[in-house]
Write a structure and sequence with these properties.
mainly beta, seven-stranded antiparallel sheet
Length: 160
Protein backbone atom coordinates (compact mmCIF):
# COMPACT_ATOMS: atom_id res chain seq x y z
CA UNK A 1 0.00 0.00 0.00
CA UNK A 2 1.32 3.43 -0.96
CA UNK A 3 1.77 5.68 2.09
CA UNK A 4 0.42 9.23 2.19
CA UNK A 5 2.77 11.99 1.10
CA UNK A 6 4.55 13.76 3.95
CA UNK A 7 3.52 17.11 2.40
CA UNK A 8 0.36 18.28 0.72
CA UNK A 9 2.09 19.47 -2.44
CA UNK A 10 -1.06 21.27 -3.61
CA UNK A 11 -0.46 23.76 -0.77
CA UNK A 12 3.07 24.59 -2.01
CA UNK A 13 4.00 26.71 -5.01
CA UNK A 14 6.21 24.20 -6.85
CA UNK A 15 7.48 26.93 -9.19
CA UNK A 16 8.94 29.00 -6.34
CA UNK A 17 12.62 28.79 -5.47
CA UNK A 18 13.54 29.76 -1.93
CA UNK A 19 17.18 28.62 -2.30
CA UNK A 20 18.84 28.25 -5.71
CA UNK A 21 21.80 25.97 -6.51
CA UNK A 22 24.35 28.61 -5.48
CA UNK A 23 22.61 29.07 -2.10
CA UNK A 24 22.53 25.30 -1.58
CA UNK A 25 26.27 25.11 -2.30
CA UNK A 26 26.91 27.62 0.51
CA UNK A 27 25.52 24.96 2.88
CA UNK A 28 26.21 21.56 1.26
CA UNK A 29 29.66 20.49 -0.04
CA UNK A 30 28.52 18.52 -3.14
CA UNK A 31 29.55 20.03 -6.48
CA UNK A 32 29.36 19.26 -10.18
CA UNK A 33 27.75 15.99 -11.19
CA UNK A 34 27.29 14.99 -7.55
CA UNK A 35 25.11 17.95 -6.56
CA UNK A 36 21.64 16.40 -6.67
CA UNK A 37 19.62 19.47 -5.64
CA UNK A 38 18.80 22.18 -8.17
CA UNK A 39 16.66 24.21 -5.81
CA UNK A 40 14.84 24.30 -2.50
CA UNK A 41 11.20 25.18 -3.13
CA UNK A 42 10.20 25.47 0.50
CA UNK A 43 12.03 25.31 3.81
CA UNK A 44 10.13 25.82 7.04
CA UNK A 45 11.49 28.67 9.18
CA UNK A 46 12.82 26.23 11.79
CA UNK A 47 14.50 24.07 9.09
CA UNK A 48 12.70 20.94 10.26
CA UNK A 49 11.11 20.27 6.87
CA UNK A 50 11.70 21.15 3.24
CA UNK A 51 10.72 20.48 -0.35
CA UNK A 52 13.36 20.52 -3.09
CA UNK A 53 13.75 19.53 -6.72
CA UNK A 54 16.17 18.03 -9.19
CA UNK A 55 15.65 18.45 -12.90
CA UNK A 56 16.79 15.15 -14.39
CA UNK A 57 18.70 15.92 -17.61
CA UNK A 58 19.58 13.77 -20.64
CA UNK A 59 23.25 14.86 -20.48
CA UNK A 60 23.97 13.48 -16.99
CA UNK A 61 26.87 11.08 -16.41
CA UNK A 62 24.70 8.01 -15.73
CA UNK A 63 22.46 8.25 -18.84
CA UNK A 64 24.62 6.28 -21.34
CA UNK A 65 25.11 3.34 -19.00
CA UNK A 66 22.03 3.05 -16.79
CA UNK A 67 19.82 1.11 -19.14
CA UNK A 68 21.06 2.01 -22.64
CA UNK A 69 18.18 3.04 -24.88
CA UNK A 70 15.90 3.56 -21.88
CA UNK A 71 17.75 5.67 -19.30
CA UNK A 72 16.39 5.46 -15.77
CA UNK A 73 17.63 7.68 -12.95
CA UNK A 74 19.40 5.31 -10.53
CA UNK A 75 17.68 4.66 -7.22
CA UNK A 76 20.93 5.21 -5.38
CA UNK A 77 21.03 8.77 -6.78
CA UNK A 78 17.45 9.34 -5.61
CA UNK A 79 18.61 8.38 -2.12
CA UNK A 80 21.66 10.64 -2.49
CA UNK A 81 19.34 13.53 -3.41
CA UNK A 82 17.27 12.84 -0.29
CA UNK A 83 20.45 12.69 1.81
CA UNK A 84 21.55 16.06 0.45
CA UNK A 85 18.20 17.58 1.38
CA UNK A 86 18.48 16.08 4.88
CA UNK A 87 22.00 17.53 5.11
CA UNK A 88 20.74 20.98 4.09
CA UNK A 89 18.20 20.88 6.91
CA UNK A 90 20.65 19.53 9.49
CA UNK A 91 23.38 22.07 8.69
CA UNK A 92 21.06 24.88 9.74
CA UNK A 93 21.00 23.45 13.27
CA UNK A 94 24.78 23.39 13.71
CA UNK A 95 26.34 26.30 15.60
CA UNK A 96 29.18 26.67 13.07
CA UNK A 97 27.34 25.62 9.90
CA UNK A 98 29.55 25.54 6.85
CA UNK A 99 32.77 25.92 8.84
CA UNK A 100 34.71 22.65 8.39
CA UNK A 101 31.58 20.62 9.12
CA UNK A 102 29.29 18.58 6.98
CA UNK A 103 26.67 15.91 7.46
CA UNK A 104 27.84 12.50 6.31
CA UNK A 105 25.27 10.02 5.04
CA UNK A 106 25.36 7.00 7.38
CA UNK A 107 22.15 5.12 6.69
CA UNK A 108 19.03 4.55 4.65
CA UNK A 109 16.20 2.49 6.09
CA UNK A 110 12.74 1.46 4.91
CA UNK A 111 13.76 2.21 1.32
CA UNK A 112 11.15 1.52 -1.33
CA UNK A 113 11.26 2.43 -5.01
CA UNK A 114 7.77 2.81 -6.43
CA UNK A 115 8.27 4.40 -9.84
CA UNK A 116 10.70 5.37 -12.56
CA UNK A 117 12.45 8.69 -13.07
CA UNK A 118 13.64 9.54 -16.58
CA UNK A 119 15.50 12.40 -18.24
CA UNK A 120 13.13 15.34 -18.58
CA UNK A 121 11.42 14.62 -15.25
CA UNK A 122 11.42 16.99 -12.30
CA UNK A 123 11.99 14.95 -9.15
CA UNK A 124 10.37 16.66 -6.16
CA UNK A 125 11.93 15.61 -2.87
CA UNK A 126 10.36 16.09 0.54
CA UNK A 127 12.05 15.72 3.88
CA UNK A 128 10.99 16.08 7.51
CA UNK A 129 13.39 15.87 10.43
CA UNK A 130 12.20 13.18 12.84
CA UNK A 131 15.23 12.97 15.17
CA UNK A 132 17.67 15.83 15.72
CA UNK A 133 20.55 15.24 18.07
CA UNK A 134 23.90 16.92 18.45
CA UNK A 135 25.67 14.53 16.06
CA UNK A 136 22.91 12.48 14.40
CA UNK A 137 19.82 13.34 12.40
CA UNK A 138 17.09 11.13 10.98
CA UNK A 139 14.74 12.39 8.27
CA UNK A 140 11.69 10.91 6.64
CA UNK A 141 12.09 11.41 2.88
CA UNK A 142 10.01 10.92 -0.25
CA UNK A 143 10.35 11.64 -3.94
CA UNK A 144 7.54 12.45 -6.36
CA UNK A 145 7.35 12.76 -10.15
CA UNK A 146 4.17 14.13 -11.78
CA UNK A 147 2.28 13.67 -8.51
CA UNK A 148 3.22 9.99 -8.07
CA UNK A 149 5.41 8.70 -5.25
CA UNK A 150 8.59 7.20 -6.77
CA UNK A 151 10.65 6.54 -3.64
CA UNK A 152 10.57 6.70 0.12
CA UNK A 153 13.30 6.26 2.72
CA UNK A 154 14.42 7.14 6.21
CA UNK A 155 17.77 8.91 5.89
CA UNK A 156 20.27 9.11 8.74
CA UNK A 157 23.19 11.52 8.78
CA UNK A 158 26.02 12.22 11.19
CA UNK A 159 27.78 15.52 11.70
CA UNK A 160 31.43 15.15 10.78
Amino acid sequence: MVPPLIFDLSAINLDAVQYDAQSIERINPQRGAMRMLDGIIYAKDDFMEAVAYKDVRADEFWVPGHIPGRPLFPGVLMIEAAAQLASFLTMHHLPDKGRDQFVGFVGADAVKFRGQVEPGDRLIMMSKVRVLRRRRTTCESQGVVRGALVFEATITGMTI
